[in-house]
Amino acid sequence: MHAEMQTEYPTLNIPILAINMIGTEPGIADVALISTLPIVQDDATLTIWDNWGGIWRDVKILNAQNEVIHTFNLTQHNLAPGNGFCTDSVSMTQSSCEGLGETWFGNYEYLKQLFVDAATQ
Amino acid sequence: MIRLSPSILFSTVLSISALSIFGCGEEEKPTDSGSVDTAITEDTSDTTDTSPVDTADTTDTDTADTSIVDTADTDTVDTADTIDTDPVDTDTDPIGPGPNAVVDFSLPDTNPSSPTIGQTISPRDYLQQVSGWYFIKAT
User: Fewer beta carbons within 10 angstroms: which end of chain A, N or C?
Assistant: First the structure.
């Protein structure tokens, strides 16, 4: 998604970084195989996760004043194709959602749009 | 030969003297006017003389003033305005952390695949722009 935004919206220059959970440092080598995102390692002194109120797979979007304006959890909102949510909060598929006259949001597109909207406000 | 009495002769001489004084005075007016006209002509010359001086002065002054003052003023004011505007913009641009800003930290990038490996990362580096932070378990 980061690379996609850089290509589609180069002037927005939205960085995405990762904060690794305390105690999981050895796994960074594995993550490096599939991701080039900058990663900082949380520790017992800084306790970034606690201070920021973050949980596993949260994506927190900060505004230009370093304030959290959106939190989007990727466990609840899987970014794999076909996953999304409906405005009726009940329908689980795009077809059933739109069949009821509701609006369907794909998780991936929704999160991406959150970034773009935040950067263009 | 006519003989004039002394009284008649005296009267005649007196009349001629009076004509010389008053009658000739009337005849001298045109002469005086001529002198005055000549003087006026000379005054006109003076006016003409003044005009070139004024014109020269005006031309010189206008040209000099317009060229130097206007150009200098415009450049200076415009430049000053631009400079004044920039500092204001600069003052506006550096937005500090908001009242609900996340707690700051400063840590190195530990991802060996990242182009910024080893470089210090702080959320404050991303003031003035939107940033995304992903909470991961690197397992």
Answer: C
Per DSSP, the three-state class of B120 is strand
Domain ranges of chain B: 11-94
Q: What is the pLDDT of residues B20-43, one digit of tens each?
A: 433 333 334 344 444 434 343 344
**Do A38 and B121 count as a contact with CB atoms less than 8 A apart?**
yes
User: What is the model's pTM?
Assistant: 0.64
Question: Measured between alpha carbons, how far is A110 from A94 in angstroms, rounded to an integer?
Answer: 14
Q: Provide the greatest CA pair distance for chain A.
A: 52
Q: A22, A44 in Cβ contact below 8 A? A: yes
Chain B nearest C-alpha distance from A6 (Å):
13
**Residue B109: exposed, middle, or buried by beta-carbon count in 10 A (0-12, 13-18, 19+)?**
buried
CATH assignment of the domain containing A92: 3.40.30
